[in-house]
Amino acid sequence: RRPSRDELLAGLNEPQRQAVVHEGAPLLVVAGAGSGKTRVLTRRIAWLISERGAHPGSILAITFTNKAAAEMRERVEELVGGRARIMWVSTFHSACVRILRKESANLGFKSNFTIYDAADSKRLMTLVCRDLDLDVKRFQPRAILNWVSNAKNELQDHEEAAKDARNTQEETYAEAYRIYQERLRQANALDFDDLLMMTVHLFRAFPEVRENWRRRFRHVLVDEYQDTNHAQYALIHELCADSMEELTTAESGAERVPPAELMVVGDADQSIYAFRGANIRNIMDFEQDFPNAETVLLEQNYRSTQTILTAANSVIGHNEGRKPKKLWSDAGDGAKITGYVGDDERDEARFVAEEIDRLSDEGKARAKDVAVFYRTNAQSRVFEEVFIRVGMPYKVVGGVRFYERREVKDALAYLRTIANPADLVSLRRILNVPKRGIGERAEACIDAYATRERITFWEGLQQADQAPGIATRSLTMIRSFVELIEQLQSMVVAGERVDVILEQTLTRSGYLKELEESDDPQDETRVENLAELVAVAREFAEDPQVGPSADPADEPDPDAPPPGLTDFLERVALVADSDQIPDVPEGEDAPGVVTMMTLHTAKGLEFPIVFLTGLEDGVFPHMRSLGDKPELEEERRLAYVGLTRARERLYISRAIVRSAWGAPAHNPASRFIDELPVDLVDWKRTAAEQTSWTRQDLGGSSYGGGSLTGRGRQQMASRFSSASASADASKKAMAGRDVPSLDPGDRVQHDSFGLGTVISVEGAAEKAVASIDFGSEGVKRLLLRYAPVEKL
Ligand code: ATP
Ligand code: MG
Questions:
Q1: What is the ipTM for the molecules in this complex?
Q2: In which residue ranges is the amino acid composition biased (Low complexity) (predicted)?
Q3: Per-residue pLDDT tens digits for 444-472
Q4: 301 lines ligand 1 (CB under 6 A)
Q5: pTM for the structure as a whole
Q6: Structurally, what CATH architecture does the domain formed by 728-791 represent?
Q7: Domain over 308-401+590-699 is classified CATH 3.40.50.300
Q8: Among 12, 20, 38, which is best to mutate for testing ligand 1, by the most ligand atoms less than 8 A from CB?
Q9: Fewer Cβ atoms within 10 A, N terminus or C terminus of the chain?
């Protein structure tokens, strides 16, 4: 199929056309969100093939995700037909894999090499740490891997990394790097970062190989250029920079190949992957890096209404050191932005669900037109629960579903073991998680002993002293593990609340500590997910009718015993099951499902209707960024990405109280809300309205309300009161009484339990109850009015 020129250039404005038909010098297309960068890139590929006679095999187009690659390929094939099939449209990683499979011999490994994912890499690094006999407290595999990954992104092999090591710790990291690479090689495996680094090293070490690939790829096109890291930049440079003056090729005698034609498109304001090594300078310095480069600016936005654009421009305008852009739209002002302040995160989610319902009832949108964005994966949990309850079909894009996440599964495996130590799968899952030196050998000895004695594996552990063949060190570790589980079991027997048991499990097992001390950003997410799980447990303990997937028809039975661990586990298991919403193949006008994802995942996408949720300082912008200007600016770029995904309608929302670690947090409104022009937002419900509700409900705590709204408010009221308890209100209320004013983290002395640390405080004044960890005495919940505790 050969489309006409008009067809290829249809629906493009003048600068877009220029970029599509451009020939020769490296071309940079910089433009704000929704200005058609991706469209230009796609069209240019079709143009190259159709009008300039480029062989499809000579085209290398790079996208940020595999999904984006598939879409781009499809668009091009629609335009120029099946012959486009052999062009390379892929992510950097996939392109490198393909190159390395062909060139592996040069690098000394077999072409059937395995690619290690993050989990495999970690397992391997753990082995390395064992080889090196490293103190796992000081040298965590994850931290080392992170360091190694950074080195690889900077194209440093272990020798260079060792040279650059600034202290003994980094020297050890470099040594671990060396052995890690050795083991990868033995396994004929490459990790993710290797794919890029090895390809660049290959091109640099073998000029003739590089020339071959240059000869092949005559056109290189890169989308989302603002998020490339150094290795990716170097790769492009190898293929596209004018290296005629460089000596390497001349010395090797290889024939010089002129550089490929390069086009990169991007938007510095959308650079959001610095934490993974992306370097915003790559796009900012493009004109220096490629001296004869030309630049095309696109200024018309075709995605959003003017209201949405003005809002986004206003927010991003608060970043310093950026080139101001004049992004405009002729789509008209459109609807105002709708704002909502929820009582808590559940109320916020309920608002979103109701609003989507309303829009579809009024024929303004179908579920598939709607996207819900949040800052961290953990926030999906409440949306999932509320959406399941109200029957709103949804899918979570990217990221594993909450209850399938590793850390959540681990935590639940602990609880299952505590509830039922015969549950072999759960027990074995956590036996050595976090690493406590109970190795495979010891495990095998216990297994053999238990089989012989016809007892459970757990009983085998309890009698480990009698099992032959276990090293003393392992034996000590097994004993303390058994003790840990037994202690936690005694909390269950004592009728302790599920959330307290869970918190204790995570702290005493060392699980939480390991994550907190790690510098892998993923582990930060894991900690957040665990905080979410504790919040679920707390909610369940307080009001089992509200927790995950509680059937609203269930009447509370006043005579029933308080819900325990087993009830909780059952409840959670049911959520995980009802979670599975089948992917029904849909026609054009099927309503489809609501899409949920983190802001990072939303890059490059667009939806008619967007809900930007959790706009609270400490959530978004993320806590970590609050005191750090570069990080805060990156958060602001993320906000810009989020806002500019919307085509027609934009919603912004936040919650007054949000659970984290079971202790409700009272987050102030996100500063990004203040950066929006006031007159563009129509607040459905403000903080002021919210607070008056709260006061009313706090006064007369009637428990009659049956509707969701009634319950939401009532629940909010109880949460609000606990939130204020840990703030000044409780201190004031308690002043003058003999009730000590306590905050989480305070140290106290109790007449009979001794020294303790306050975990949380709920309720105010004479109703204040504190959970206090008294170490070996366990965690006690004490009514402070009567408890003989003294603040230290
Ligand atoms: P982002 O920065 O978010 O990646 P982008 O610059 O890549 O955005 P595109 O996704 O290519 O923008 O385009 C945004 C929307 O505008 C798409 O729906 C696209 O089809 C449409 N569009 C782009 N250019 C035009 C045009 N000249 N006329 C009409 N619609 C256009
Ligand atoms: Mg794009």
A1: 0.99
A2: 710-728
A3: 999 899 989 988 899 999 999 999 999 99
A4: no
A5: 0.71
A6: Beta Barrel (2.40)
A7: yes
A8: 38
A9: C
